[in-house]
Amino acid sequence: MPFDFRRFDIYRKVPKDLTQPTFTGAIISICCCFFILFLFLSELTGFIATEIVNELYVDDPDKDSGGKIEVNLNISLPNLHCELIGLDIQDEMGRHEVGHIDKSMKIPLNNGDGCRFEGHFSINKVPGNFHVSTHSATAQPQNPDMTHVIHKLSFGDKLQVQNIHGAFNALEGADKLSSNPLASHDYILKIVPTVYEDMSGKYRYSYQYTVASKEYVAYSHTGRIIPAIWFRYDLSPITVKYTERRQPLYRFITTICAIIGGTFTVAGILDSCIFTASEAWKKIQLGKMQ
C-alpha cells in the first residue's frame, strides 16, 4: 500500500455542497475583512515608524569630552554699551577668567546704546558660575543697567528630535526688561546630562537643565555692589538616555498572525452562535405552527 502523505493534513477540506452560506455570515465576514485591514494598517504604521525609549542611569556619558561642557549663550542688554560688557567664568577647580573673549561677538543695539552678546565657550564639569557683567571694563559705569532678554542658553550638542520635548533651552525668551535696572540677577541651574542614540548607533551628547531665578540689589560695607547677571550651575549625577529604535520584524509578524487568527476565531464563534440561535428559533416557530 503506497504511503499517503496527505494524512498529515490537519486542515481537512469540506466539500462546498456540504456547507451552507448565510446572510449573517456574509455580513460578519465583510466586517472581519475591514477590521483586519484596519488593524493591519495600524500595525504597519507602527512598524515603519521609529519609537524613542528613555532610561536613567548614574554615569558620565561623555567621557571623551575631557571634562568639558560646551555652552552657547545669546543675550541682549538694550541699555548697556558693548564696550562695557564682558563674560566672566569661575568654578571650583580654581578657574577664574575675567573678560572671556574667545568665540564671542558683541552686536550694538539701539544706535549703540545697547548690546547683544553671543558667546560659545566651555566650562568644567564641576559646580561653578559664569556671569555677564562690567567687571572687565577699563572704567566702571556709575549705574550699569542690567535689564536683559535671554535668547538662548544651551549646553552640549543641539538635539532636533521631534518626539523629545526636554528643557534644552529652558531660559529661551526670559524677559527682565521691566526689572530694577540696578538689580543683579541670579539664575540657578541644575544641569542634567542627556544622551541620544539614533538608529545607526551614533551618539549625541547634550544637556537639559532646570532653572530657578531671583533678582536683588546687593550692598557691602563700601556701598552698592556692581550688578551682574549670574548663571550658577551644578551637574546632576543622573543621566537621561534616549534610544531610537524600530519594532523587530518577528514581533510585527507575530502581531499580524494574532490579529488574523484572533479575528477569524471570534467571528467564527459569533457566527456559530447566531446560526445556532436562528435554527433554534426556526424550530420553535415550526412547533407553534403545528
TrEMBL record:
Residues 5-97 form the Endoplasmic reticulum vesicle transporter N-terminal domain. It is found in: Endoplasmic reticulum membrane; Endoplasmic reticulum-Golgi intermediate compartment membrane; Golgi apparatus membrane. Residues 107-271 form the Endoplasmic reticulum vesicle transporter C-terminal domain. It is a multi-pass membrane protein. It holds the Pfam family ERGIC_N. The chain crosses the membrane at residues 20-41, 249-270. PANTHER family: ENDOPLASMIC RETICULUM-GOLGI INTERMEDIATE COMPARTMENT PROTEIN, ENDOPLASMIC RETICULUM-GOLGI INTERMEDIATE COMPARTMENT PROTEIN 1. Plays a role in transport between endoplasmic reticulum and Golgi. Belongs to the ERGIC family. This is Endoplasmic reticulum-Golgi intermediate compartment protein.
